C-alpha cells in the first residue's frame, strides 16, 4: 500500500527507495530480546541512511564507524566515546586524527605498523586487536584483508606494551552473510585464548567485540547464531568475568528495511544483423537503476536480483536480460533469465535492498543518488512497544 500511495504522488519515473523504519525497530527489539547482554554497534557502512542510524541510536545502539566521514555522522548524532567503535584496522593518519579530535577512543588494529601510526597520532586510544577467524562459510569474506593470525597475537601485545599503548580487548569478523553459527563458537573460543595470552603478558582485557556476519532476516539462522553466541559467552566470558561484550551488525538491521522501486525505461528483442528474430531470442530490458547503482551485489556477492512486477501480468515469458541506465557496457544486472513480458514505463520493485546496495552506487554518467521515502509498516505499528511514542 505504501508503494502504491507513493507512486500516486509521484509524477516522474525516477527510481526510489521505500524505507520501513518499523522493520528497523522490530530488528532492534528482536536483537535485544535474543542477546540482551550484547550491545549492537550498527555497522553504518552497510546502509548509511541517517533515519535508520538515528532510529537505532535513539533506541540504544552504538555505531561502528570506518572513516572520518562516518565519525562526522556519529558526532552529528551526539554520540559519546562509549557509543562508537572505529573498526577499520588500517586507518589514514587524518582519519585517526579525526577520531582523536572527537575523543572517540575505541579502535581496532591488526599490525605493528598500525600500532606505530596510532602511537604517533592518538596514543590515548583504547585498542581492540582484530583476530583472524574462519570466514569460509560467509558470502563476503573479510579474512584476506583484516585480522591478525593467532601466531602474531603475543608479539602484537608485546609491541603495544613497549609503545605504551592501551590494548583493551579483542575483535573479529566471521565474514558477511555467514551461514554457520559455529563460526561464532570457534571465534569466541579463539578470543578467550587471546584474553589468556594477554593476561600472561600482564594485560587485563575488558572488551570482546564479536563483529558482524548475522543474517539479514530475523529467521531460524539468526536464532541459531544467537544461541551459539550466548552459549559460547556463558562458557568463556561469563557475567562475573566483567568483560563488556559488543557486536558490529550491519546487514541484520538494514537488509529487510528497504524496497527499491524502479522503472522499465527500455525494451527490445535482440535481432540478428540480417533482421531475423531467432526462436528463443532474448528480450532486453533497460531499467533505471543498475549494476553500478544499487545492484553491485550481483558481482560482490554473486546475488541474483529478480524484479517483481507491481501489477503482475500473465503474458508470455521470454529469455531476458536487464540492463542499467548508464552507457557502461558492463551495466548488466541480470542475464539469461526467464521473465514474464514487461512493458516500458512499468514499475518493478525489489524487496530486501537495505544492505550493501545504495551505499555502493557511483554517480557514473551523472545519475543522482536514489530518493528515499520513509514509513512504518502497519504490521509493526501496533505491536511495537514504542508505537505510542512515535
Ligand atoms: N564490522 C566490520 C569491520 C565490517 O567490515 C563489516 C562488514 O563487512 C561489518 C562490521 C558488518 O558486517 P555485517 O553487515 O555482515 O553484519
UniProtKB/TrEMBL annotation:
Pfam families: Orn_Arg_deC_N. It catalyses: L-ornithine + H(+) = putrescine + CO2. Keywords: Lyase, Polyamine biosynthesis, Pyridoxal phosphate. It is an enzyme of class 4 (lyase). InterPro entries: Ala_racemase/Decarboxylase_C (IPR009006), De-COase2_CS (IPR022657), De-COase2_N (IPR022644), De-COase2_pyr-phos_BS (IPR022653), Orn/DAP/Arg_de-COase (IPR000183), Orn_de-COase (IPR002433), PLP-binding_barrel (IPR029066). One of its GO terms (biological process) is putrescine biosynthetic process from arginine, via ornithine. Its cofactor is pyridoxal 5'-phosphate. Residues 22-254 form the Orn/DAP/Arg decarboxylase 2 N-terminal domain. The modification N6-(pyridoxal phosphate)lysine is found at residue 45. One of its GO terms (molecular function) is ornithine decarboxylase activity. Pathway: Amine and polyamine biosynthesis; putrescine biosynthesis via L-ornithine pathway; putrescine from L-ornithine: step 1/1. The active site is at 327 (proton donor). GO terms for cellular component: cytoplasm. The keyword NADP does not apply. Its EC number is 4.1.1.17. It comes from the Eukaryota. Belongs to the Orn/Lys/Arg decarboxylase class-II family. Catalyzes the first and rate-limiting step of polyamine biosynthesis that converts ornithine into putrescine, which is the precursor for the polyamines, spermidine and spermine. Polyamines are essential for cell proliferation and are implicated in cellular processes, ranging from DNA replication to apoptosis. Homodimer. Only the dimer is catalytically active, as the active sites are constructed of residues from both monomers. This is ornithine decarboxylase. It comes from Trichoplax adhaerens. The lineage of its organism: Eukaryota, Metazoa, Placozoa, Uniplacotomia, Trichoplacea.
